[in-house]
Automatic annotation (TrEMBL), chains A, B:
Similarity comment text for this entry: Belongs to the HAD-like hydrolase superfamily. S-2-haloalkanoic acid dehalogenase family.
Name this polypeptide is given: (S)-2-haloacid dehalogenase
E.C. number: 3.8.1.2
Lineage: superkingdom: Bacteria
Enzyme class: hydrolase
The reaction(s) this protein catalyses: an (S)-2-haloacid + H2O = a (2R)-2-hydroxycarboxylate + a halide anion + H(+)
Task of the protein: Catalyzes the hydrolytic dehalogenation of small (S)-2-haloalkanoic acids to yield the corresponding (R)-2-hydroxyalkanoic acids.
CDD domains tied to this protein: HAD_L2-DEX
GO molecular function (one): (S)-2-haloacid dehalogenase activity
Keywords: Hydrolase
């Protein structure tokens, strides 16, 4: 193992928190009592599937930067329509949209992050906006040193500016930092900016062993089973 | 007491940490062994006195936005010159400049912030840059939910944008937040944007009972003796 990175920068949706399980539960909790009988897991996946295309309009310059909360809400309206859900109050749509602020962490994440924090700065490098990340951290006991990423950088991953400006905010060179993600495309883009990389396996993100992110497909500095395994491989003791 | 603010936004230098005592100690620790016999407290005050004029050039538009670390270093070179200190290595100047990343908290700050955090989001709204705030928080065990302020807002207090963009990053209206500071001018500017205000007495910041910030000079929502007293007045229990 080379020298300890000075900062570990984390992808969040899927890497730190279980968006699929949490959104499935929140959608069912709101809509089932109103008589809707949907495939809740499909509902969650549909909503999530509109995420990359919505950001792509911003990455391409077709639209100016707006926060992820705004994109999530526009996408939710489309998903509700696709599933034939009508008649929700605006406040109910807002409440469901804020389910992204209440995503549950993977079981190892709170204690694993606390452990990793003893060895390096830990910060978010997510496409989620600051308010979303702050509320999620308070909900899930995620002890971030800083909330960085898209809103601070005014650029969405995988644009290089999203990574470079997050490192710069910490006054660190990319090579002094490590990107931690459960997604190959994120790590490939981070590595291209000079960041070191750690792939964390999250097989339950999609629950599909055929999914492209079910295994590491690039050459990464570390491949880990969870955050405690990552700490182990970085040489950060459990206590 | 009105409803609990959703977020408490903190001035940091002087309000959370003791810059004068810390800078005095760091300057002496570096320079005394090299044979310098200065008035260390005067050295710290001189360096700090160059802070507002340096930011003013940016606030006025005479200079584009640069981080406080950059201004601190330029100011340090001037202070060293004013005190006749020559011959320091660039790495020594860098080390002393980073003393701002290692400022010690007032004794009540770590436990007081942990208590306040149970009732509201706590975030920095300082003119200090992100790296400085992150390193200081790790040094002093300051459990911020988020690092906001000048670098995120790209504006220095007391410009209204510094306050407004920090509230906006939390997706909160100014009236849902409270500015916490030991400085009258900061609170007056925050109140003008619609933020609520809490004045915290820090008589040792300057150690001068005649200093303009030795007492509250405006009408604030709360005046507190320290962060535990602030928590008490907000109704946040000690445990």
């Amino acid at each position: 193992m080379k020298k300890m990175p000075k900062a570990l920068l984390f992808d969040v949706f899927g890497t730190v928190v279980d968006w699929r399980g949490s959104i499935t539960r929140e959608a069912q909790a709101l809509l089932a009592p109103q008589g809707h009988a949907l495939d809740w897991d499909a509902f969650a996946r549909d909503w999530r599937s509109r995420y990359q295309p919505a950001m792509e309009r911003i990455r391409s310059g077709a639209r100016g930067f707006v926060r992820l909360d705004v994109l999530h809400r526009e996408n939710l309206v489309e998903t509700l329509e696709a599933f034939g859900v009508t008649g929700l109050a605006e406040t109910e749509i807002d409440h469901l949209n804020r389910a992204w602020h209440r995503l549950d962490p993977w079981p190892d994440a709170p204690s694993g992050l606390a452990r990793l924090k003893r060895g390096a700065i830990i910060a978010t490098l997510s496409n989620g906006n600051i308010a979303l990340m702050v509320n999620m951290a308070r909900h899930g006991d995620l002890p971030w040193d800083a909330i960085l990423g898209a809103e601070v950088a005014r650029a969405y991953k995988p644009q290089p500016e999203a990574y470079l400006r997050s490192c710069e905010a910490l006054a660190l060179a990319p090579g002094e930092t490590m990107m931690v993600a459960a997604h190959n495309s994120d790590l490939v883009a981070a590595a291209a900016t000079g960041m070191r990389t750690a792939f964390v396996l999250r097989p339950e993100e999609y629950g599909d062993p055929q999914h492209e992110d079910a295994q590491a497909r690039g050459r990464y500095d570390i491949i880990a089973d969870d955050f405690h395994d990552l700490a182990e491989k970085l040489g950060i003791a459990a206590n």
